[in-house]
Each structure stands twice: as structure tokens, then as C-alpha cells.
Recover the amino acids of this structure.
């Protein structure tokens, strides 16, 4: 089914407005850059996605190579204002040409018709035929039982084709199960499942996850795409230390026009949760006495007073008394004062009532005998569906590396 030409003509009337907005916007100075498969390979795309704890093999790409898949950089500018969404670079897959994500937004109907088929798994998700599918598949071996990835879905179908049959879709099948879902009950990431109405502003499903960028609204975000989601995070169960299968797929729905794109963060497919908290100071060396136990505590706190208490604490005891005859303790530390040991501590805390799209500033504090010895830099946590979790409490899991020496 092809849509009629008058829709494109209507968009042409809007073009001059978009040009003016682009000239006036400082966001037009910097922005996205892309490289398609003329200068990179499917293996390199898969490698770019695999973060710590994940190895990959058997990479296959089907779709409109070389133009429909590649890598991107400069992605912080695809968020509006100063509130960066945090996906600066990664892999981009398209139902058209990945180069068409580069801003500013000058057209309401950017199209590359690849004249390729859709994907049967995506057809099943949206209940109708898809077109111009680009599919990146590979096997991977994770070192833990969960993987995480972060992505942004964007399309030219926004906003005029919201609630139509042109319901472009993205999915991330992990061992056959789509992880790119949102809401309760879970629904696939698609035009009709994330929007703010047609016309824009009328309210729609999962509207807080939607960022409007249409030309009529001044196209505030530096990408050609008329609308996009906020950065979404997916967490999926996998089988550790065994081969699992991943399939990333994007397609046009209804016809092969008005491109959709998905941005997936570099190193995104990882067994380490996406929230990282780093110490501000260069990692302090915690000095501990002789053979006694050395106990430190991690607590979290809000950097600003908003929100419910970020109350959780973990105590870390690192020095067990030595067994007789042993020359070192559980960390392998001897009495040599120059020797140091590192310990990685897993830490989880809950944040209550973070509305979708809002942020909370938190930091971790490291104390010993009640005295603060270090604190992390402030981390901005955005409330998104996947960390909002059950009972409106975000559970954030992170890891902190501690360094110890004897004195
Ligand atoms: Ca556009
Ligand atoms: Ca489309
Ligand atoms: Ca297309």
C-alpha cells in the first residue's frame, strides 16, 4: 500500500519554516555523523555493540547494505537543549539510509525506498506487512545471566502518521523474545505505541517517552527525524557462558517510505548494568591496620533534596584475619606497605517515584568508621520505563572499585 502524493506536497509547503528554524538554531553547528557499510563492516557493527562480558560470533546482516546500516557519532546533539540523552555514539540501523538521520530537520518526509522485503518477526509484532527491513544478527556468549542495552527509536512517520497503518517498528529479539518493549502490559516499540497524539499534543500512549521534533514545532532536536523516543533501556535474561542469539531488526510498516532508524549505544550489549557511578577523586587508597578487619560502608544520597530518601547501605569487610601459616589475607595482601589490592563491590539502591523522563541526582559516599573518605561524582538518573520498575521504585545496580593497602 502506497500513500498518496498529496501528503508529500503538504510537507513541501512546510519546508521553508524548517530551513529558518535550522539557521536560527545553534544545534545546527554540531551534530550527528554517520558511516555506512561502504566504510565499515557488519562484524564491526556487532563488535561495537558488544561491551564488557560479551563475546560475539556469526554476524549476519540482511537489508539495504551498504546504506541502511552503519555507525554514528555526535549523538549527544540528537537531544534537545542541554539535557543530553547520553547516547553519543553507536550503531544505527535504518529502513532507508542511515545518513538521513543527520540534522537539522529540513523535510517531513525523508525517504529511501530500498524496495526490499520486510521481516516476518516484525510483521507478527505489528500485525501487518513490513518493508525495507534491516536485520543485524549474531551469536553471543555473556559472562552473566542478564544483558542490558540502550537505544533510541526515531522515524519520519511522526506525527502525521501516528495511528495509521504506517506503524514503523523496531525489535531486539534475544533468543527469539523481543526485548524492545515498553509499558504494562509490554508492547513493542513502534510509532503507534510511543507518541503524543496526532496532531501532536493530543496525548498518546507512553507520551513521556516521546520527543517531538517536527518542523511545525521548530524541530528543536538536531536530527532529520521528525520524532524519536528518549533513550530506552532493556534488560533481558540470557544463558551465561553459552551461545545466545541476538537479532536487531527495523522496518517500515505499510509501505517502504518515510524512514525509521534506531540508535544503539556503543558497548550497550553488556552484562554490566548501564548506570555507572565513578569516584570524583582519583580512587582513594583505603589503608587498613594490620590483621584486623577493615570495614568500609557505601551509602547513596540525593545530591539535591528532591525525591524520597535514597536509602541503602552496604558494608564491605575486606580483611579477614589470616589463617595461621598464611602469609597473606583474603585479598592477597601481605604486610608489604607498598602492596595494594583492589576489590570490586556490587552495589544496588532504590529510588522511589522518579517520573518517566525526569531525573534525580545521586551520588555514593564511602565512609570508614563514620568518616567520609570519598564520594562519587553526581550521577543523573533519568526515570525511564525500565528502571522505574515494579511499585514505582527504580533499582539501580552499579559496581564500585575500591583500593586497599595495609599500614
Ligand atoms: Ca524530517
Ligand atoms: Ca516508514
Ligand atoms: Ca524505506
Amino acid at each position: 500500500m502506497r500513500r498518496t502524493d498529496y501528503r508529500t506536497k503538504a510537507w513541501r509547503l512546510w519546508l521553508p519554516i524548517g530551513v529558518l528554524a535550522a539557521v536560527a538554531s545553534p544545534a545546527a553547528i554540531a551534530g550527528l555523523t554517520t558511516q555506512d557499510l561502504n566504510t565499515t563492516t557488519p562484524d564491526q557493527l556487532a563488535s561495537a555493540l558488544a561491551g564488557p562480558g560479551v563475546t560475539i560470533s556469526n554476524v549476519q546482516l540482511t537489508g539495504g547494505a551498504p546504506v541502511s546500516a552503519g555507525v554514528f557519532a555526535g549523538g549527544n546533539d540528537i537531544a534537545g537543549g542541554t539535557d543530553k540523552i547520553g547516547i553519543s555514539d553507536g550503531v544505527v540501523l535504518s529502513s532507508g539510509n542511515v545518513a538521513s538521520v543527520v540534522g537539522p530537520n529540513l523535510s517531513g518526509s525523508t525517504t529511501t525506498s530500498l524496495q526490499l522485503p520486510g521481516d516476518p518477526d516484525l510483521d507478527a509484532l505489528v500485525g501487518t506487512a513490513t518493508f525495507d527491513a534491516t536485520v543485524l544478527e549474531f551469536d553471543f556468549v555473556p559472562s552473566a545471566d542478564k544483558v542490558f542495552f540502550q537505544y533510541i527509536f526515531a522515524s519520519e512517520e511522526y506525527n502525521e502518521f501516528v495511528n495509521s497503518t504506517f506503524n514503523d517498528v523496531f525489535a531486539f529479539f534475544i533468543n527469539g523474545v523481543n526485548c524492545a518493549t515498553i509499558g504494562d502490559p509490554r508492547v513493542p516499540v513502534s510509532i503507534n505505541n510511543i507518541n503524543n497524539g496526532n496532531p501532536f499534543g493530543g496525548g498518546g500512549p507512553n507520551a513521556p517517552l516521546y520527543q517531538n521534533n517536527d518542523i511545525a514545532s521548530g524541530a528543536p532536536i538536531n536530527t532529520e527525524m521528525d520524532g524519536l523516543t528518549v533513550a530506552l533501556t532493556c534488560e533481558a535474561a540470557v544463558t551465561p557462558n553459552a551461545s545466545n542469539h541476538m537479532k536487531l531488526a527495523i522496518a517500515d510498516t505499510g509501505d517502504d517510505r518515510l524512514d525509521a532508524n534506531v540508535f544503539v549505544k556503543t558497548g550497550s550489549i553488556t552484562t554490566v548494568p548501564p548506570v555507572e557511578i565513578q569516584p570524583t577523586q582519583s580512587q582513594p587508597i583505603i589503608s587498613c591496620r594490620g590483621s584486623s578487619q577493615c570495614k568500609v560502608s557505601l551509602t547513596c544520597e540525593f545530591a539535591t533534596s528532591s525525591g524520597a530518601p535514597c536509602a541503602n547501605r552496604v558494608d564491605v569487610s575486606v580483611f579477614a584475619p589470616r589463617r595461621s601459616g598464611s602469609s597473606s589475607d583474603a585479598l592477597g595482601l601481605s604486610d608489604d606497605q607498598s602492596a595494594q589490592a583492589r576489590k570490586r563491590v556490587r552495589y544496588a539502591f532504590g529510588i522511589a517515584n522518579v517520573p518517566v523522563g525526569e531525573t534525580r541526582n545521586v551520588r555514593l559516599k564511602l565512609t570508614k568508621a563514620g568518616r567520609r573518605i570519598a564520594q562519587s561524582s553526581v550521577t543523573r538518573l533519568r526515570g525511564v520505563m525500565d528502571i522505574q520498575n515494579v511499585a514505582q521504585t527504580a533499582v539501580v545496580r552499579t559496581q564500585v572499585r575500591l583500593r586497599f593497602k595495609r599500614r
